[in-house]
Amino acid sequence: MGAPSAKQVVVVTGAAGAIGTLVVSRLGQRWTIRATDIRSGPSIEHLDVVDVDRCRTIFEGADAVVHLAANPDPASDWSELEVPNVVGAHAVAAAARDCRVRRLVLASSLQVGMAYPHTRQRRTEDAPRPANLYGATKAWAEALGSWVAATSDTSVVALRIGFFSERPPAGQNGTPDNVTAWLSHGDCVRLMQAAVESKRDGFTVVNGISANRYRIAELGEIEREIGYAPVDDAWQAVGPGE
Ligand SMILES: NC(=O)c1ccc[n+]([C@@H]2O[C@H](COP(=O)([O-])OP(=O)(O)OC[C@H]3O[C@@H](n4cnc5c(N)ncnc54)[C@H](O)[C@@H]3O)[C@@H](O)[C@H]2O)c1
Asked: pTM of the full predicted structure?
C-alpha cells in the first residue's frame, strides 16, 4: 500500500488503552492523530465518548475515526457495559455521521460469534451469535456501523478483533479459541492501517486475526480487498514441533 499523498487526520478514541497506545505509536508518523481517551494525559485529549457534542467538536474535519474506547472484558455485566459500549458506541457513530468523516473504524470482536459451534470457522458474513453480553454490545456496534453507512457518505469498517497480544496466548490464556484467534502487534498495526486507508465504500466486516496456520476465523477476499495482509502465525511464534 503506498503512502497517502497528504497526511490523513485520524481521531482515535480509547487511545490510552492497549490497542490505542500501539496505534498511536506505530501510525503517528503516517497520520496526523488526535488521540483521545476518558483518561487524558500529556498527549491525549479528554473525551468521554458518551458526550455526543464533544465527539462532534473533536471529529470535525477528521478524515477517519478509529473507535476503540470501550469496556473490553467479555465477562462484564450490563452495569459495566451499558455506558461505554452501548451509549458510547451510539454517540461516536452519530457524531461521525453528522461530521461526515470519510471512514469510521469500529472495534468489534470475534465474541460476536462465540455461540457458533467451536468446530465452525467464523466468516465475516456470519450473523452475530454472541454467547455473552459483551459480544452482544459488539453486535450493537456493528449494527450502528451498518446504519451509518446506509444513511450517509461515511463508510464503515468493523473489525472482529481476536486475541490481541504481543506473543501468542500461553498458560491460562493458551486455549484453542485464543491461540487460533491471536492478533499480533504487527498485524494489528497492518489491520488498522488497512481499515483506515482502504477505498471501500459502504459497510464492511473484517476478521482481525493474524495469519495463524490454524485459525478460528476465515481470512479471505474481504481482508484482501481492504489490503490487510497479516504475516504472523501463532505456531511459528511458538517454535517448531509445538
Ligand atoms: N484487546 C483485545 O484482545 C480485544 C479483542 C477484541 C476486541 N477488542 C476491542 O478493541 C478495543 C480496544 O481494546 P483494548 O484492549 O485496547 O482495551 P483497553 O481497555 O486497553 O482500552 C480501552 C480504552 O477505552 C477507554 N475508555 C473506556 N470508557 C471510555 C469512555 N466512556 N470514553 C472514552 N474512553 C473510554 C479506557 O480508558 C481505555 O483506555 C475495545 O473496543 C475492545 O472491546 C479488544
From this structure: 0.96
Q: Please indicate, yes or no, if residue 3 is contained in any of the structural domains.
A: no
Residue 73 belongs to a domain: yes
CB atoms within 10 A of CB 79: 7
Structural domain includes residue 47: yes
Query: 178: domain range?
Result: 9-238
Ligand 1 interacting residues, C-beta cut-off 6 A? 13-14, 16-20, 37-39, 47-50, 68-70, 72, 84, 88, 107, 109, 161, 163-164
Looking at residue 64, which CATH number applies to its domain? 3.40.50.720
* Sheet containing strand 155-161, strands side by side: 45-46, 32-37, 9-13, 64-67, 103-109, 155-161, 203-208
The pLDDT tens digits of the residues spanning 10-44 come to 999 999 999 999 999 999 999 999 999 999 999 99
Ligand 1 atom 21, closest CA: 17
